[in-house]
Specification:
The chain is mainly beta. It has 2 domains: 38-211 and 293-530 and 546-643 and 669-777 and 812-841 and 914-992, TonB-dependent receptor, beta-barrel domain (Maltoporin, Chain A, Beta Barrel), CATH 2.40.170.20; 222-280, no CATH class. The strands form 14 sheets. The chain has a 22-stranded antiparallel barrel. A 5-stranded mixed sheet has the order 3-8-9-6-7. Strands 38-39-40-42 form a 4-stranded antiparallel sheet, with no helix packed on it. Helix 7 (846-853) packs antiparallel against helix 8 (893-900). The longest helix is centred in the first third of the chain and has 12 residues, at 2-13. It comes from Chryseobacterium taeanense. Its main location: membrane. It is found in: Cell outer membrane. Residues 408-949 form the TonB-dependent receptor-like beta-barrel domain.
C-alpha cells in the first residue's frame, strides 16, 4: 500500500493525476508546481498551461497581499520577467505605467501600456491630467497632480489571481487592445464546502518614512561668496552695518559655519534681527517637514458555496495619511459576486463593485512654485524650518504669506495646508456572464461588462502665492463610461487521439469620457474658494474622448494525445478612430506546444517534463480619437474663443501593425522540485503613427500626421522556481526571473531627411529622439565638448566649451532586470523576502542640476577652500592653432558649478539608474488548531511586513526608478521635481471563521 501511495504521489507531481488523500498526508498540494495548472488567457478562456504555445505567468492572491500597498500593481514589481511597473513619485495614489517587453510605439510615452482585463472585461487605464507640464517655473502656471485612474479602484483583497500575457501572441484575441500584452485579473468567488459560511477579516496597519535623501551639505550657508570691506565672507539679511543684502539669493555659497554672528532673519521681527545672531546650520530643515505616514486598511469578506451557488461579498476601508503633512486619502469599497447553476446546462455569474476615493489634499509634483519639491530644492542650510510655520504674516491671515527669502519660493506650510488639491471619485465596475450548455459539444457564453467613473477635482491657490497673487480656484469634472459585450460559441470534441475545441464570437467596446473645467482667475475675497467669488471666470469647452471598437474573432485548438498542441486564432476589428477605408483590419496568430518528455518517453523521477513552444502573431494598434480631421481647439490665450490647430491630421490613417515571433522551453525536474522556462521573442512594429512631420508653412500648418517607420524589439526572459528543501515541517521555495529587451529603430519617414524625430520631451532640456539605428528611450541633450584624447574642453574664460548640437546622452531603459523571491516555512512560521533590480539605464535629474547650481549638495564643497574661492576645471583649452593645453583659468566656485551643471547640460545631470532593492519582506505566524479551534476560528495569522526596506544605487537623488508626471503622461528617465519614495513597515492580522 505504501508503494502504491508513493507511485500516486509521483504521478501527481508529473501532472498526470490528482493528488490523492494518502499523498496529501505526506505533502501539501500548495507546495507543488503542477504543470497542468489552469491559467486564464485572452477573453477569460481557461486553458491548461501545458497547452499554451506562448509564455504566461501567474501571481496568486497570497503573493499579492503579503505587503500593504496603496496601489495593488506595485506588488507585481520584480516578480514577472519582462514586466515593468513605473510610477512618477507623485504621491499616495502612485498611478503606474505598466509595460511588457519594452516600448513598441513612437506615438506617445503613454501609448505603450499593457491592457488591463478584469474578469474577462477590458478596463480603461487612461489617465486624465490637469493639463499642466512638469516644468513650469516662471511661466505662471500650475503643477501636475496624480489623481489616479480606474485601476486604483480595484481592491487587492478581492483579487484571486493575476495572469500576465506578455506578448501579442498571448493576447492576440484582444486585437488592438492587447497588442502590448495584457494583465488578466480574476476576482474571488465563494469557495466554502457544504454551504458553510466563512467570514474573513484582513487588517493592515503600516508606517511610511522616506527611503532615501539627497546628500545635502550643511557646511556653508546662504550667499554668493560676497565679501565685506575687510575681505571676509559675510552674510546680511537686508542692508546692515556689515554690508549690502546677501539674503535674497537661493544659493548656498555663503560663509562657512564657523561660529560667526551676522544680521539674520528674525521670525519675531519678521525681518532683520536687531542684533547679530549665531551663524549656524539647521541640519533637519528639510527632513523635519516630512512625517511618518500611516495607512490603516480593513477588508471584511463573507462567502459561501454549495453544489449550485457560490456567493461572496466584501467591504473594505483604507485610510492613508501620507508622508507630506495634510495629504492622504480614504477609500471605501464594496463588492459582490454570485455564481449560480440554474440547472445542469445554464449558469449565471454576476459581479459588481463600488469604490469611492476621497482626499482633501493630494500633493502636487513637478518643478514649479506650488510643488513641495520646489521648496526642498530652494531651502537654504541656515534657514530654520520653524520660521515658516505661522504661514501668514501677523494681521494678514489669508492675505500675505511668510516667505522671507524670495517671493518666488512659497512657504512649505502654505503649500501643504492652503494649496490643496482635492478629489472625490466614484467607480462602479460590474459584469454579467451567462453560459448555456447546448449539448455535450456546444455551449454559448454572453458576457457584458461596464465601468463607470465620476470625479470632482478642485485646486485651491491662496492670495500671495508666487504664481497667483490674488488667488486661484479650479473645479474639474471627469466622467467616464466603458461598456463591453462579448458573445462566444464554444465547441469541443474528441476524435480518437485528437482533442479539438473551437471558439467563435464577437465583441463591442464603447468608451466615452468627458472633461469639464471651470476656473476662478483671482479671488475677490481672500480665502473664499468658489466660482462666484471669482475676479474673472473661465470655462473651457468640454473635452470629449469617445471611442468604439467592434470585433469578430475565432480560436481553434487541436491536440494529439495530450502531447502536441496547436492553436490558431483570427480576429477582425473595426475601430472608430480610423477612416472608413482603413477601419477594418485583420489579425491572425498561430501557436504550438510539444510535450517532448512525452513524445520521446523521457519521463523519470528526475526528469519530469519538457515542453517546446513557439508562436507567431500579427496584431494592430489603433490610435486616439480625433486624429483624422482638424477641429477647432479652445484657445488658452483668449479664453472663451477657439483656434485652429497647427497640425494637419491624416484622413487616411492606418493602424500600426505588430508582428511577433516567440519561442521557448519549459522544464520540470526532480519531482517538480525545480521548474525552469526560457523565452526568446522578436516583434516588429510598422506603420508607426508619427505626429510631428514638418510641412511647409504655406500650407497653413507646421506639422502633419503620417504612417511610417519601423521598430524592432528582441528579448530573452527566464524564470526559475525551486524547492531546495521540502519536508514535513520545513519548506524553502525560491523563484527568480531575468529579462532583457533590445529595441532598435529600423526606419523613419523620408521627410525627416535623416534628422532625429522628437517624440517626447520634458522641460525644454531633455529630448526623446528617434534616430535610425537608435532605440526608443534614447535621451538627447547638450553635453560637454571633448578633445581627441577624451578630456573636457574649457574656454579661455574658464567655463566649459558649449557644443553646437545635442547628442545622445544615454537610454532611459536598463540593459536587463532581475528579481528573486525566497520563502521559508517552518511549522506555523513563514518568512519571505524578495530582491529585484536593474543594470544600467539613465535618468536626467532637474533637482540635481538646481541643487548643484545653488551649492546645496555635498559634491559642491570641493574647491570652496581654494585661495580666493577659485576653482580650475579639469580639462584642456583649445589653442589658436588647434592644439590643446591644460586649463589653468580659475573661476569662482559658484560660477563653476552653475556652468558645469547648468540645466541645459544634460550630460552632467544624467546618472546611471542601476539599483538593487529589498522590495518586500514578511514574517508571519499562523496559530495552531489547539488555539483556534476553541475560539471557533479556522485561521488566525499575524504578520510583520516591510516594503522598500533597503536600496543600493549610485543615483544621487531620491529614487533611481525616476519618472516624471508631465500632465497625464508618466515619462521614464527624467526626474523633474520628484517626491520622496517611501519605506514601509507594517502589521497584518488575518482571521477566518
Amino acid at each position: 500500500m505504501r508503494k502504491e501511495t508513493q507511485k500516486l504521489l509521483i504521478l501527481s507531481l508529473l501532472g498526470l493525476v490528482s493528488v490523492n488523500l494518502a499523498a496529501q498526508q505526506k505533502i501539501k498540494r500548495d507546495t507543488i508546481k503542477n504543470i497542468d495548472e489552469v491559467v486564464v488567457t485572452a477573453l477569460g478562456i481557461k486553458r491548461q498551461n501545458k497547452a499554451l504555445g506562448y509564455s504566461t505567468e501567474t501571481i496568486n492572491s497570497e503573493q499579492l497581499l503579503r505587503t500593504q500597498n496603496n496601489h495593488w500593481t506595485s506588488a507585481l514589481e520584480g516578480k514577472v520577467a519582462g514586466l515593468k511597473i513605473q510610477t512618477a513619485g507623485a504621491g499616495p495614489l502612485a498611478t503606474p505605467r505598466i509595460t511588457l517587453r519594452g516600448d513598441v510605439s513612437m506615438s506617445s510615452m503613454g501609448d505603450n501600456q499593457a491592457l488591463i482585463v478584469l474578469d474577462g472585461v477590458p478596463l480603461n487605464s487612461r489617465t486624465v491630467g490637469t493639463g499642466t507640464p512638469a516644468y513650469g517655473a516662471g511661466a505662471g502656471g500650475d503643477v501636475p497632480i496624480d489623481y489616479g485612474n480606474d485601476l486604483s479602484s480595484i481592491n487587492p483583497d478581492d483579487i484571486e489571481s493575476i495572469t500576465v500575457l506578455k506578448g501579442p501572441s498571448a493576447s492576440a484575441l484582444y486585437g488592438s487592445r492587447g497588442a502590448l500584452g495584457a494583465i488578466m485579473i480574476t476576482t474571488k468567488s465563494g469557495k466554502t464546502k457544504n454551504g458553510k459560511i466563512q467570514v474573513s477579516l484582513n487588517s493592515y496597519t503600516s508606517f511610511d518614512s522616506v527611503l532615501k535623501w539627497p546628500d545635502y551639505q550643511y557646511e556653508y550657508g546662504q550667499g554668493t561668496m560676497q565679501k565685506d570691506k575687510n575681505g571676509n565672507y559675510y552674510y546680511s539679511y537686508g542692508v546692515s552695518p556689515d554690508g549690502v543684502n546677501t539674503g535674497s539669493t537661493s544659493s548656498a555659497y555663503g560663509p562657512k559655519f564657523n561660529g560667526q554672528s551676522f544680521f539674520q532673519y528674525d521670525p519675531n521681527e519678521q525681518g532683520q534681527s536687531k542684533e547679530r545672531q549665531l551663524w549656524r546650520p539647521y541640519k533637519n530643515n528639510i527632513k523635519d517637514f516630512w512625517q511618518v505616514g500611516t495607512t490603516f486598511s480593513n477588508n471584511l469578506a463573507l462567502e459561501s458555496s454549495n453544489d449550485k451557488t457560490a456567493f461572496r461579498a466584501s467591504l473594505s476601508y483604507l485610510k492613508n495619511e501620507w508622508m507630506m503633512p495634510n495629504t492622504g486619502l480614504e477609500k471605501w469599497g464594496a463588492a459582490i459576486s454570485v455564481d449560480h447553476k440554474v440547472n445542469d446546462r445554464f449558469k449565471a455569474n454576476i459581479k459588481l463593485s463600488f469604490n469611492q476615493t476621497k482626499s482633501d489634499n493630494l500633493p502636487a509634483t513637478g518643478y514649479n512654485n506650488q510643488s513641495i519639491s520646489y521648496f526642498m530644492i530652494f531651502q537654504n542650510p541656515n534657514v530654520d524650518l520653524a520660521w515658516y510655520k505661522p504661514i501668514w504674516k501677523e494681521g494678514k491671515d489669508q492675505v500675505d504669506q511668510i516667505h522671507p527669502f524670495s517671493s518666488y519660493i512659497d512657504n512649505p506650510y502654505l503649500i501643504a495646508y492652503e494649496m490643496t488639491n482635492s478629489l472625490d471619485k466614484k467607480n462602479i465596475v460590474g459584469n454579467v456572464s451567462l453560459s448555456y450548455q447546448i449539448n455535450k459539444h456546444f455551449d454559448v457564453l454572453l458576457r457584458s461588462g461596464m465601468a463607470i467613473n465620476d470625479e470632482l477635482r478642485t485646486q485651491k491657490r491662496p492670495w500671495s502665492s508666487a504664481n497667483f497673487a490674488q488667488g486661484y480656484y479650479r473645479e474639474q469634472y471627469v466622467n467616464g463610461f466603458n461598456f463591453n459585450n462579448d458573445l462566444m460559441v464554444n465547441y469541443k470534441n474528441t476524435f480518437g487521439a485528437f482533442n479539438f475545441s473551437a471558439t467563435a464570437g464577437g465583441s463591442t467596446q464603447y468608451f466615452e469620457q468627458l472633461t469639464k473645467d471651470y476656473y476662478a482667475l483671482g479671488l475677490k475675497k481672500a480665502g473664499v474658494y468658489s466660482l462666484t467669488n471669482a475676479v474673472a471666470q473661465r470655462f473651457d469647452l468640454p473635452q470629449p474622448y469617445d471611442k468604439m471598437v467592434s470585433s469578430m474573432y475565432g480560436l481553434a485548438s487541436l491536440s494529439y494525445k495530450d502531447k502536441v498542441f496547436l492553436d490558431v486564432t483570427a480576429r477582425n476589428d473595426w475601430s472608430s478612430t480610423l477612416p472608413k477605408a482603413n477601419r477594418s483590419y485583420f489579425y491572425p496568430s498561430v501557436s504550438s506546444s510539444f510535450i517532448l518528455s512525452d513524445i520521446f518517453g523521457l519521463k523519470s523521477r528526475k526528469f519530469n517534463f519538457w515542453k517546446l513552444r513557439a508562436s507567431w502573431s500579427q496584431t494592430g494598434n489603433d490610435t486616439e480619437p480625433y486624429q483624422l480631421l482638424n477641429y477647432y481647439n479652445p484657445s488658452l490665450a483668449f479664453p472663451g474663443s477657439v483656434e485652429v490647430s497647427n497640425r494637419y491630421l491624416n484622413p487616411n490613417l492606418r493602424p500600426e501593425m505588430l508582428t511577433n515571433i516567440e519561442g521557448g522551453m519549459d522544464f520540470s525536474l526532480f519531482n517538480s522540485r525545480l521548474t525552469y522556462n526560457i523565452t526568446a521573442y522578436q516583434s516588429n512594429s510598422v506603420d508607426q503613427i508619427i505626429r510631428n512631420v514638418p510641412v511647409l508653412w504655406e500650407t497653413g500648418y507646421t506639422q502633419r500626421v503620417i504612417n511610417s517607420g519601423e521598430i524592432r524589439n528582441r528579448g530573452i526572459e527566464m524564470m526559475m522556481n525551486a524547492y531546495p528543501i521540502k519536508s514535513k515541517n520545513f519548506l524553502w521555495n525560491v523563484s527568480a526571473n531575468w529579462s532583457m529587451n533590445r529595441n532598435k529603430i529600423l526606419s523613419l519617414p523620408e521627410e525627416f531627411n535623416g534628422e532625429p524625430y522628437t517624440y517626447a520631451s520634458v522641460g525644454g532640456a531633455v529630448y526623446y529622439n528617434a534616430v535610425v539605428g537608435g532605440s526608443l528611450g534614447d535621451l538627447y541633450g547638450y553635453g560637454l565638448v571633448y578633445s581627441p584624447d577624451g578630456q573636457v574642453v574649457f574656454g579661455s574664460d574658464g567655463l566649459t566649451a558649449k557644443p553646437a548640437q545635442m547628442k545622445k546622452i544615454g537610454n532611459a531603459y536598463p540593459k536587463w532586470r532581475a528579481g528573486i523571491q525566497n520563502e521559508f516555512r517552518y511549522k506555523n512560521i513563514s518568512i519571505s523576502f524578495s530582491f529585484d533590480g536593474q543594470y544600467k539605464g539613465m535618468a536626467y535629474s532637474q533637482s540635481h542640476h538646481k541643487m548643484t547650481e545653488q551649492g546645496k549638495l555635498v559634491h559642491t564643497l570641493e574647491g570652496r577652500d581654494n585661495p580666493g574661492g577659485l576653482i580650475v576645471g579639469q580639462g584642456v583649452v583649445q589653442n589658436a592653432d588647434g592644439s590643446y593645453s591644460p586649463n589653468t583659468k580659475g573661476i569662482p566656485v559658484s560660477t563653476y558649478y552653475g556652468d558645469y551643471y547648468r540645466r541645459a547640460n544634460v550630460e552632467t545631470n544624467t546618472f546611471d539608474t542601476s539599483f538593487i532593492k529589498l522590495r518586500d519582506a514578511r514574517i508571519a505566524y499562523s496559530f495552531p488548531k489547539s488555539v483556534t479551534a476553541p475560539l471557533k476560528i479556522t485561521d488566525l495569522t499575524l504578520a510583520l511586513f516591510g516594503k522598500n526596506l533597503w536600496m543600493w544605487t549610485k543615483f544621487p537623488l531620491f529614487d533611481p526608478e525616476a519618472a516624471t508626471l508631465d500632465n497625464a503622461t508618466i515619462t521614464p528617465g527624467i526626474e523633474m521635481g520628484q517626491l520622496p519614495t517611501s519605506r514601509t513597515i507594517g502589521f497584518q492580522l488575518n482571521v477566518k471563521f
